[in-house]
Structure formats: C-alpha cells, structure tokens
Amino acid sequence: MNEVGDPSASAGAVARGSVARVGSATALTAICVYAVIYLAARNMPPASFSVFGVFWGALGVATGAANGLLQVTTREIRMTRYSGISADRCTHPLRVAWMIGSVAAIVIAGTSPLWSRQIFAEPRELSVWLLSAGLAGFCLQAALLGALAGANGWTQYGALMVTDAVIRLTVALAAVAMGWGLSGFLWATAAGAGAWLLLLAFSPTARAAARLLAPESTMRFLHGAAHSITAALASAILVMGFPVLLKATSDQLGTRGGVIILAVTLTRAPLLVPLSAMQGNLIAHFVDQRTERIRALLAPAAVIVGIGAVGVLAAGLIGPWLLRAGFGADYVASGPLMAWLTAAAVAIAMLSLTGAATVAAALHRAYSLGWVGATAASTLLLLLPTALETRTVIALLCGPLVGIAIHLVALAQPVTDQRRSL
Fold first, then answer.
1. What is the reported pLDDT for 284?
2. Which ranges does the record mark as transmembrane (predicted)?
3. Which residue in 144, 330, 394, 412 has the fewest CB atoms around it within 10 Å?
4. Is residue 379 within 8 Å of 245, Cβ to Cβ?
C-alpha cells in the first residue's frame, strides 16, 4: 500500500488502489444510509418522515458545505507532489477547519431564532443544537478526509466513511429498539460527526495525515476554501438539502411531500452516494491528468451515463412497487415520476463530476459560479405554478444543466497560469 505522504506513487497505481478501497467503503456506506432511511420511513408516517427528511437535508446542507474543505485540502496536499513551495508559506488544513467549524457553529446557534421556526418542526431546540455540533465535527472530518485523499491514505479514507455511516446506523437501531421516535432519528443523523476522533485514536496513518501541511499561505488557502465552500454549499442545497428547498418554496408538504422526498432520496442515492464518497479520488485523478482537462472527464462521465440509463429504466419499471413494498402502502409514486427523478439524479451527478474537475484545475470561481447558478435556477423553477411532482422534476433536471455549461466553458479554456495548474 502507498504510505501517507509518499510522493512517488504512480498515478495509475493510485487510481486503481483508491477506486478499489473507496469503492468497497462506499458500498458499505450506501447500505448503512439506505438502512437508516428505511428504519425512519418504516417507523414513522409520511408526515413525520418529512420532518426527519427536512432535518436530514438541513444537516446535509451544512456538512455538504464543509466538503469544500475536503476538496481544497485534497488538491493542496496533492500539489506537494508537483510544487516546491517553501515551508514558510504552508498552512495546517485541520487547524483552519477547526476555526471555520467553530465559527460556523456559533453563527448557526446565534441566528437560529431568525430562521429555525420556518425550517424545523418540534423538537426545534434539539434540531438547532445537533445541527451546530454536527457541522463543527464534520468540518474537521472533511479536512481529514482531504488530507488522506491527497496523500494516498485510501484505506483510512474508506475506514472514516464507514465509521461515520456505522455510527449513524447504530444510533438509528437503538432509536427503534428504545422507542425514541423522531428525536432518536435526529440524533442518528448527526451522530457520525465524531467519527474522525475514533480514526485518529486508532490509526497512526490518520494521525500522520492530520499533521500534513498544504503548500499555500493561510490567506491563499482560505481564498480557495471560500470558493470551494460556497460551491459546496450550493451543491449541498441542491443535493442533500433539497427537502429544505422544497419546504421553503411550498406552503405545505404533508403526506405527498413526504412521498416525494423519499422518492428523490432513493432515486439519487445509487449515483450520488458513491460519487460524493469518491470526490477525493476524482480530484486526485484530475490533478494527475491536469494537462488533459476535458479528456479526463470522458471515462467517468461514460460510467455515470451508463449506470444512469440502467437506473432510469429500472426506476420506471419497478420503482413504484419497491416503494410500496419497502416502505408501506402510504408511499405511492408513479413509474414515470420515478424514472424522471432518476434522470434528474444523472444530471446532478454530471454536475458533481465537472465540479470536481474545476476544483482540480484551481478554477475556484468557475466552480462556485457553476453550482450557485445551478441552485439558483433550480430554486426559480420550483416556483413554477405547476403540480409539486412536475416542478420537482423540472427543477432537478434542468437546473444542473446551467452549472454543467459553466464548468465546461471554464475547463475548455487554455491553461494560462502554469503555477496554479501544476
């Protein structure tokens, strides 16, 4: 196995090893995610599940924004292979993550009286507390994942993903066994925020990665992180935070809203869960293939389209039956709706892919503009005066096309700043 910090490994070996290890971890993580969703839907009626789904989405928005730290840390740690920047210009990513997480948690808790009543149902105070604490923990977790990805610590990278997911599932099982109800599932959603502490306690390799420095001054690192966090926030609103977006643009969600939230979650998870887990792999791949930006997109894009085509067909044919058989007779959705939602998931997956390529190319402004543009377009489309199902499909399918176009235009430009592209 390639050791953390070893700059001599070949790109091909890194790619093969990273995909195998992170792929296995992703499969286990996806099983745990599906299990938590299944337990929540089976043990709560659709109206209560919509409350859980909104909190899951809100935490997903916050932690998704924290993934901007994963992206920028991955790139900057991996840049040490190709740059000879002196130590006096280096930054400790985990210290920056601790600072950002602490400030963000304080801001969320302090401003909660202004927005929590609109977003959260009861228990509102617990939701705010879990959101604040969860975000602080996930900022450090994201930076550690980025350091591991940048330095080829793929086994530990996968172990951290699985630990997070297993902690969530364990708490969800306890919630069912102890009859904790909605509050128990809220705890389960945020419980993985401490997984990074367990990994640091038991893994010398993870501790070594946590000490790595990025070859940037703190200000330049924060500048790149600001763009990445902005884009990751927009990404998280569109991906994990869609229930929150739906709630904000609708008067009432009720039972039908719970069904749509579950259908959206189930149709996108097979693509977006592994793609999110492999952000570190993708960024590392695009950094290694930095001179062929567009060509480097072709192979992963073909995989996404191929899997997506099979998914669209399967969702249309057996999706409605799986929804009723797995979650109960209250969860009813048509075949065309399930197929269109799966197609929308393919569009968001392609946007995630082009986004990873722009991060690797240090096109931070284009990266953030693409995701912000896609999220803004989707939000506006959710305001269309049509049925909830129709505007959901239109927003999730068409909004990402705006961001993909922005990313591709930026990636197609010739490299003009060789220092930043190395």
1. 77
2. 22-41, 47-70, 96-116, 128-150, 224-246, 297-318, 338-362, 369-388, 394-412
3. 412
4. yes
CA 104 to CA 98: how far, in whole Å?
Answer: 10
pLDDT one-digit tens code per residue, 294-336:
888 998 899 999 999 999 999 999 988 988 888 777 788 889 9
Q: Work out how many domains the chain is built from and give that number.
A: 1
- Is residue 6 one of the residues assigned to a domain? no
Residue 368 belongs to some domain of the structure? yes
Does 2 reside within a domain? no
CA distance 91 to 70: 15
User: Domain for residue 218, yes or no?
Assistant: yes
Looking at this protein, which amino acid is placed at residue 188? A
pLDDT in tens, 259-302: 888 888 888 878 887 787 777 778 878 877 777 888 889 988 99
Contact at 8 Å (CB) between 96 and 218?
Answer: yes
Q: 219 to each of 18, 169, 187, 308, 376, how far by Cα in Å?
A: 30, 39, 36, 40, 28
- Which residues are bridge partners to 91 per DSSP? 214
DSSP states of 7-58: TT--HHHHHHHHHHHHHHHHHHHHHHHHHHHHHHHHHS-HHHHHHHHHHHHH
| pTM more than 0.85 | no
